[in-house]
Amino acid sequence: MSLGDDVLLEIEDEGVATITLNQPDRRNPLSEGISAGLTEALDEIEGSDARCVIVEGSGGSFSAGGDIESMVEGIENDVPADERVRTLERSTNELMRRLIDFPVPTVAVIDGPAVGAGANLALACDMQLATEDAVFGFVFRQVGLSVDAGTSYLLPRVVGENVAKELVLTGDIIDAEHALEIGLVNHVYDSDEVDERVEEFVGRIVSGPPIALRHANRLLGEGLEKSLEQALTDEATAQGIVFETEDHEEGVSAFFEDRDPEYEGR
C-alpha cells in the first residue's frame, strides 16, 4: 500500500505491519510528506489486526532527520520564527506523540544514518534493531539549532542524562557497536543476515498474546513517570482486564498441556 509516494505500508497476514520511509534520494528526512504519510500509516495499522510494526527507511538510510530544504526555504523567505515553530508542532511533534503512544509494539530497523530528528524517530519506537552499517547522531548543533523532536524526553530515558548531554553537546556521530554499548539500540546484526534476524525477533513478539502485550508495553512506557503505588495499581487494573481474555485461558491451558499457546487476540 502506498500512502502517497513518500511512505509505503505493508500489512502481512502473519500480523506484521511494515512502514517504509520512501524518499531515498534525500535520505528519508522528516519532510511534511513523510510525517503525514507516517501518521496515516499508523492510523491504518491501528484499525488492522497487526500485532507488531516495523519502521524502516529505503535506499540504505533510516532518516536524515529534519528537512534541510524546508529550513533553507524558511531562511530565504524570512518566515517568522513563530510560524516555523507552529509548522514543526503540526508535523513532527504530532507524529512523535502518535508513535510514542502507539498501542501496537513498534520496532525500528536502522540501516545507514539515523541523525537528528531521524534518530529520535528510531527512539520513539519501542525497540531498535540496527545493521552494522547504521550510524547515529544528535547533530542539531551542526545546523545551529537546539534539540527538538523529543530529544530531551527520549534520549535521557534510553542512555541516561550524562551520555545524552555528551551526544547532543558534541554532536558526535557514533557507529552501531557504540550505540549498542550505550543502550541506544537493542541488537546489531550483520547486513547480510538482518532480514532473517529481524523476522525472527518480530516473530517472537507476534506469537505472544496481543492484548496482554499491549498493556505491558504501555505500562512499561509510563513506568518512569509513576510512583510505585500508582504502578502497582495500574498493573493490577490491566491484569483484571487481561484475566477476562480468551488468550489468558489459552495460555494457562497450553502451560498445563505442555504445548505452545496459539493466541488469537481475544
From TrEMBL:
InterPro entries noted in UniProt: ClpP/crotonase-like_dom_sf, Enoyl-CoA_hyd/isom_CS, Enoyl-CoA_hydra/iso, Enoyl-CoA_hydra_C
Molecular function via GO: isomerase activity
Record bears the keyword Lipid biosynthesis: no
Family: Belongs to the enoyl-CoA hydratase/isomerase family.
Pfam families from the UniProt entry: ECH_1 (PF00378)
Matching CDD domains: crotonase-like
Name of the featured protein: Enoyl-CoA hydratase/isomerase family protein
Alphabetic keyword roster: Isomerase
Organism expressing this protein natively: Natrinema longum
